[in-house]
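2024-03-11 09:14:02 INFO queue: dequeued item nitrate reductase (cytochrome), len=708
2024-03-11 09:14:02 INFO validating residues
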Amino acid sequence: MAVKKQQTDTSASTCCYCGVGCGVLVHKDKSGQILVEGDKKHPVNSGMLCSKGLNLHYTVNDTSDRLLYPQMRYNKSMPMQRVSWDEALDRTVAVFKTFIDKYGPDSVAFYASGQCLTEEYYVINKLMKGFIGSNNIDTNSRLCMSSAVAAYKMALGEDSMPLCYNDIELADCFYVTGANPAWCHPVLWRRVEAHKAANPEIKIIVVDPRVTDTCSIADLHLQLNPGTDVTLNHAIGRVLIENGDIDLEFVTNYSEGFEQYSALVFEKSVAESAKICGVSEHNIRVAAKYIAEAKGFISMWTMGLNQSSIGVNKNLSLINLNLITGHIGKPGSGPMSLTGQPNAMGGREVGGLANLLPAHRDLGNPLHREEVQKFWGGKLINPKAGLTATEMFEALNDGRLKAIWILCTNPLTSLPNVRLAEEALRKAKFVVVQEISNKPETLDYADVILPAAGWAEKEGTMTNSERRISYLNKIIEAPGEALPDAEIICRFARKMGYKGFDFTGPSEIFDEHVKLTAKTNMDMSGLSYTILKEQGTVQWPYKKRGPAQGTQRLFIDKQFYTDSKKAIIQSVPDTLTSEFPDSNFPFILTTGRIRDQWHTMSKTGKVNKLNQHYQQSFLEIHPIDAAELKIVEGDIAVIRSRRGEVRVKAIISPQIKRGVVFLPMHWGKILGSDLNRVNNLTSDQVDPISKEPDFKYCAVNVIKYKKP
Ligand code: SF4
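2024-03-11 09:14:37 INFO prediction written
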């Protein structure tokens, strides 16, 4: 509180954790220390913050772990040496040029983050796709929302969440699946809780193999077997059709594919589907009844659907429930994907994935490539999709990729089958790590370390899950010689000899990005920093002379972004392709977040209060399974998969299904050891379309640890 009393300055900003995008007020005292509180005027959170947002200032005020100056070494056996920015970037330029000349542009790659600001994403994407001549730019959003991105495109024609958070208060049925928003998108869930408290008649259906805090206000919990989401959604679709509870007008006039879908969902009886899913037929029918009776129906989901070897099919089967009931393009209705990271959406806007171009243009479309190339004035854009997150590390392992530049992410905790990623960085010829913290494991493998400015130390924009763009103020100076990420990339690009990177600041980068959106479906051509500073957050599309707050809802006119202008009801199979349990590895492992930690804990792990919720990683296991293994609460369990091992304390809980175990995703070497890193175990199988990994399903063995 001391900071607030002595405050000299207050700025508005946005929380840098999840994709809810809560508004914060940042009070700064004379010494540069900050205090964060919820912004009562913000349309997303009305002053509310969750535990992570409330403690944001501790992660900024404590600079003890910050990287302060560039460092470099000429071989991995040497210690890192402090160098100037010019020395670090000149060396990086020399190495990149050598590899590009000798092996071609696909020999280098950038691996970035959904925590980068939009302007940062924009310049990295422009540099790689427009000037280096490779599409090897991918981000950790690949591990997060890429299945939803692909599904939106296949069903609606573009990656566009159609509704807004204000629809929550207008809905009377929520189908929450593959998500625990009570812990992972808490402020948004507080809005659902408040709506339910005021209107007890509204229905909440939660679909999850675990009983989570989200279930505490559920009218119906479908505790399905992991991986059976498509079967369940199809069964609900079948009941809706059987009972005549579909929107015939919408299906006939505004969608395609219903007949094929109808035939598909009738291939299995509801009883058969119930058996596969491990839920009762009665409860499937109750879920369908709740949806059928709703005037406003919102489906809500995140990683439980996305992070799967059939993630796109899971997404499509869910979106179908909105389409067949006509619950899209009207207040209180629609598919609402919950973005994991604060600016994964902004990154997608500028085309910051290996298979995208800016403003939702298609890399595979020659006209789109030409349009962007002419705008940038660089090289012809390579039509071949770049390497995705896991593919980059495979390519380092087999030598196709020589150099990787990693920024704002910690793949050595977060990638699946992480030992392969470690091996990849060991083999890489050249590794650049651009980071704020001296903790991530990637630094051990770096040839060049570039210190970056963090949240509140730089200016830019982010877009939350509901297409809401926020301006983030620079509030304090970055410590030491740390620079904003966009500035680092532009300096590098200029040293490479590329034109078009002499921006005077993020505002000019934003203006260029906005120009590229003109005449596209996400048209932001009416937007500028001035507008964002004057009137606060707005939602895209934001056309010139359009509504002052932008566009709350898409598809109100029932005109979708597909060629036919109709939504596409996709008929997807329900066959799971994950690594199944067997006699050697009899349990299904599923992974996820805990309430008070964020990703690999490089920020939240610094805050004592947040470390109290769970002080260490753990295995959640059902009491009957634990008893059979002679494991009691607090015992150390050894969990093994075909890829590696983890040893953590057991928590025995009836809230998980028998045969399924849960481990949190956060721990790695930053807080603890690599023996608590869940991604030693996970499978690197990916969805064939989205290339998103299967973090929610792999086969493991569990035994009680015995001292040797
Ligand atoms: Fe930040 Fe998300 Fe919590 Fe809001 S809900 S305070 S955006 S972490």
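2024-03-11 09:14:37 INFO annotate: Residues 15, 17-18, 20-22, 45, 49-50, 52-53, 185-187 surround iron/sulfur cluster (CB under 6 Å).
2024-03-11 09:14:38 INFO item closed
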